[in-house]
Amino acid sequence: DDKLLSEPLSHPDFFNVKELFSLKDLFDARVHLGHKKGCRHRFMEPYIFGCRLDQDIIDLDQTMQHLQLALNFTAHIAYRKGIILFISRRRQFCHLVESTARECGEYAHTRYWQGGLLTNAHIQFGSGVRLPDLIIFLSSLNNVFEPHVAIRDAAKMNIPTVGVVDTNCNPCLITYPVPGNDDSPTAMELYCKLFRMAIIRAKDKRRQSEVFDELR
Amino acid sequence: MAGNRMQKIGSVFSRTRNLLRVGVIEKPLWFDVYAAFPPLREPVYRVPRPRYGKVKDVVPPIFYQEDEVRARFYRIYGNGPRPFDLLQSNYKSTCQRFVEKFNELKEEGKIEEEKLFEETGKALLASGIILQRRGTDKVAQQDHQGAETRDSVLHQQLQTVLEEIQEKKKDREEQTLESAETQKENPVPS
Question: Which GO terms of type biological process are on file (chain A) (predicted)?
């Protein structure tokens, strides 16, 4: 059991997430398009390549690195049978996020976030609740363009987060930020596809390794 | 059931590591994975204070050499005759074609710098793209009416282009004749 868990950590890319996407895929899905110069968040400046006629362009080389780390982390968590929660407060993509979560066999929360869902879980859901082991933000802002409360709550409950941060978001508290566009439908479909494939791959590998162990 | 809810102090990892060291918590699922594959920046809370005083823009603007040509094109010809069709990923707008033709003619080098712009306009006209100067449309409409406008303007532009091409041909013929004469004359004194 110990070997099952420690063996994947020795490989730099055990689940081969690098082959799931390429720079051209990111460009075609319009991941590099940011908001206008006035909306820019101060802490997103290192991730921005430049400003073309007042529109920020995100540096896709950095996005590639961050996305690879994020997908790798997600896959490892899924391999260890962790609970993953998808959060996105964009009405346009709420159905997409929910169906992605359903296909992975994981969970999604795309509605109004009540105050104590993570911090007051034992009273709201009853004692003995298992909190998510990873929270994936497909859009880290809520409907009024403020940082989602779940980012702060996850940091409080010591839950690691993966999040797609646009040029107007605060990437400080997110454990594995992925600088990229969160407004275009093509970009959101790409992220959903990548996370879904990473999680499904990890779960299949886990099932395979358990079967091999049993055979021995 | 201990925990550390101080999200503004340290990162998730540092707080969990310290709690583990004390021994009040059991190792969470993600701890080993984070230790093996840490993020590029440790997720420590930073206060988002605005910059005071003279604000230096850290993000560089993106400009290309072709932007000079594009700026001139849009200033003279307005938005261009055809709207952008963004559904095709390899779509080339009128302005992009203009810029490419401009660069081709510049590389050939036979035309002077000041005349390059007009020459590209004429070259595009020859390949079938009508470019209307901004502001001339109203004047033309006052003189002509309805569908005749575009045809008459095109007709005029084609006529001017034809005349210029004919003049150039005559010039070239005269030059070749002169060079032939000078070649005949030169061997004589030697």
Answer: translation
Both tokens of A22, joined, read 């390429």
Contacts of A80 in chain B (CB under 8 A): 29, 33
Instruction: Please name the helix (run of DSSP H) or strand (run of DSSP E) that holds residue A161, with its range, or none.
Output: strand A161-165
CB contact under 8 Å between B46 and A157, yes or no, is: no
Contacts of A188 (CB under 8 A, 6+ apart): A90, A93, A96, A138, A182
Tokens standing for A102?
């359903």
Closest CB to A173: pick one of B16, B37, B45: B45
Q: Which of B14, B59, B62, B74 to mutate to test the interface with A (most CBs of A within 10 A)?
A: B59
CB contact under 8 A, B40 and A69: yes
Q: ipTM of this predicted complex? A: 0.94
pLDDT digits (tens, 9 = 90+) for A101-124: 999 999 999 999 999 999 999 999
- pTM score, whole prediction: 0.83
pLDDT computed for residue B180 by the predictor: 67
Quick: pLDDT tens for B60-103: 999 999 999 999 999 988 888 888 888 888 888 899 999 999 99
User: How far from the centroid of its chain's Cα atoms is residue A29's Cα?
Assistant: 17
B32 to A155: CB separation less than 8 angstroms, yes or no: no
Which residue on chain A is closest to B63 by alpha carbon? A52
**Domains of chain A listed by start with CATH number:** 59-112+129-215 (3.40.50.10490)
Q: Identify residue B121 by its one-letter amino acid code.
A: G
Specify the pLDDT at position B147. 54
Taking every pair of Cα atoms in chain B, the longest distance, rounded to a whole number of angstroms, is: 113
Residues of B with Cβ-Cβ distance to A66 under 8 angstroms: 39-40
Q: For the residues of chain A, what is the DSSP string, one character each?
A: -HHHHHHHHHSTTTT-GGGG--HHHHHHTTTTEEEEGGG--GGGGGGEEEEETTEEEE-HHHHHHHHHHHHHHHHHHHHTT--EEEEE--GGGHHHHHHHHHHHT-EEE-S---TTTTTTHHHHT-SSPPPPSEEEEEE-B-TTSSB-HHHHHHHHTT--EEEEE-TTS--SS-SEEEE--SSSHHHHHHHHHHHHHHHHHHHHHHHHHHHHHHH-
Chain A: residue nearest B90 by CA? A28
